[in-house]
């Protein structure tokens, strides 16, 4: 979800459901060897080791933000 200069994310991690925000100009970074890294506005990092393993809807939402 986008709101002005902020994107709102809702994710499920190994520790449970989380919500966080990223700046609109900050894009998920592709990692050497695969995977993505997302940095939220507080500087926390979220690593997605295998984006291809996501369900179809999640992949479609995510890939809109990946170059």
Explain this structure to me?
By secondary structure, the chain is mainly β. It is about 10% helix and about 40% strand. The protein has one helix at about 55-65; strands at about 1-5, 5-15, 15-25, 30, 35-40, 45-50. The chain has a three-stranded antiparallel β-sheet, with no helix packed on it. Strands 4-5-6 form a three-stranded antiparallel β-sheet, with no helix packed on it. Strand 1 (about 1-5) and strand 2 (about 5-15) form a beta hairpin. About 5% of the residues are buried.
Categorize the overall geometry: globular
What is the averaged pLDDT score? 89
The gyration radius over C-alpha positions equals 11 Å
Count of helices? 1
- Contiguous runs where pLDDT drops below 50 for at least 5 residues: none
Q: How many β-strands, per DSSP?
A: 6
Q: Beta fraction of the residues?
A: 35-45%
What's the arrangement of strands in the largest beta sheet? 1-2-3
């Amino acid at each position: 979800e986008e709101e002005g200069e902020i994107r709102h994310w809702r994710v499920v991690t190994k520790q449970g459901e989380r919500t966080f925000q990223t700046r609109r100009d900050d894009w998920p970074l592709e990692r050497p060897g695969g995977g993505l890294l997302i940095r939220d506005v507080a500087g926390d990092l979220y690593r997605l080791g295998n984006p291809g393993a996501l369900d179809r809807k999640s992949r479609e939402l995510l890939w809109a933000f990946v170059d």
